[in-house]
Specification:
Structural class: mainly alpha
């Protein structure tokens, strides 16, 4: 029995890179939204930082100003 072998093309690699970039952007947007929510419910900056760290988010890497507005 002969097994078929998939030969990847440049188009396959480009599609994969685009998919990874879309996923990276989605994850950043999700982190930004989480940061906005946490900041809105925190009593002070120290608590906000602690809560972000509990979520595994580094406050320096979160860009809340780039988050999409909530609908």
């Amino acid at each position: 029995m002969m097994l078929a072998r998939h030969v990847s093309t440049d188009e396959d690699h480009r599609w994969s890179a685009e998919g990874r970039e879309v996923e990276r952007a989605r994850q950043q947007d999700q982190a930004n939204r989480a940061a906005i929510t946490v900041a809105g419910h925190s009593t002070d900056a120290v608590e906000c930082r602690e809560l972000l760290e509990m979520l595994g988010l580094e406050p320096e890497s979160v860009r809340p100003d780039s988050a999409s507005p909530a609908n």
